[in-house]
Specification:
With about 290 residues, the chain is an alpha/beta fold.
């Protein structure tokens, strides 16, 4: 049945002289093997449907593991609100090293969520849930406030670091982002260090016109932008030239293979060559 649905909508549809391409994500379960109640069956199929959407799979069959995953996500979403209110997070700094002389040129601010048993909930897990529940903007606000306080400490100890701060796609779409950044960082002397706001390539491409305007407004305040995970999205280098970009961070999947002198090496070499030729990168950092 799923194959029949996909084959039926595989062709383009013409609506008011416009050709539209339609796709479908489908979730299904088994009656009576996995349930007999309509409510239970529809709930199972719905979980499978959302998994199909998340993985962009044409069809997903329900399994009890989906139920466990959904319950875990709901638990984390509920606990996130309390964690934000009680400021249960920690901010760690990952050093950025200049390979030419081994000196520390900057540090990336990375959020961590410690648990009472000494473990940590992985950021890639709770950040995704925070984005879905729109709690991510509150987390970003907390990170900005901590970075502001840490920059004050850096100034007192004469530690000069360019601090990198990550923004999510929801942050870039927020109408309050520019005002929040101005409100927070106008209260601290960050000019000795520089601030680099990191956004992923895919986040930039979600709403190009709006993101471009937001980035330009923020860049006018003196802050710089770094594009993370470059090479995994749908942009091109010439397209990026119209954004306020100071740095490109080539995705790890290419860097891991750079010593093989194969495809990874060629891709990174091409990105560097084209970037220096066509992109306006004030600091030329790639």
């Amino acid at each position: 049945i799923a194959q029949l649905i996909h084959s039926t909508i595989d062709k383009n549809f013409e609506i008011e002289n416009h050709e539209l391409s339609v796709s479908a994500c489908i979730g299904g379960t088994d009656f009576p093997k996995l349930g007999r109640s309509p409510d239970i069956l529809l709930g199972q199929a719905n979980l499978a449907l959302y998994e199909s959407k998340k993985s962009t799979s044409p069809f997903t069959h329900y399994s009890p593991a989906l139920e466990t995953s959904a319950a875990d996500n709901l638990d984390i979403a509920t606990r996130l609100k309390q964690a934000i209110a009680l400021e249960e997070f920690e901010l760690w700094y990952q050093p950025i090293i200049d390979l030419s002389d081994g000196s520390v040129k900057g540090a990336e601010a990375l959020i961590r969520w410690p648990q009472s048993d000494g473990s940590y909930i992985a950021p890639d897990k709770f950040i995704k849930i925070a984005e879905q529940s729109l709690l991510i903007t509150q987390i970003t606000q907390w990170v900005m406030n901590i970075v502001k306080e840490d920059i004050h400490l850096f100034n007192q100890t004469n530690l000069s670091l360019c601090v990198h701060l990550n923004l999510s796609v929801k942050d870039l779409q927020s109408s309050y982002l520019v005002d929040n950044i101005n409100a927070v960082f106008s209260q601290c002397d960050w000019t000795k260090h520089g601030l680099m706001l990191e956004v992923t390539e895919s986040a930039m491409m979600t709403d190009v016109a709006r993101v471009k305007t937001t980035m330009a407004e923020i860049a006018n305040t003196g802050l710089a932008f770094s594009i993370d995970d470059f090479g995994t999205g749908y942009s091109c280098l010439t397209h990026l030239s119209s954004f306020s970009v100071n740095e490109l961070k080539v995705d790890k999947s290419f860097i891991d293979k750079i010593l093989d002198k194969g495809t990874g090496f060629s891709i990174v070499q091409t990105i560097i060559t084209v970037s220096y030729t066509h992109l306006t990168l004030p600091t030329k950092r790639i």
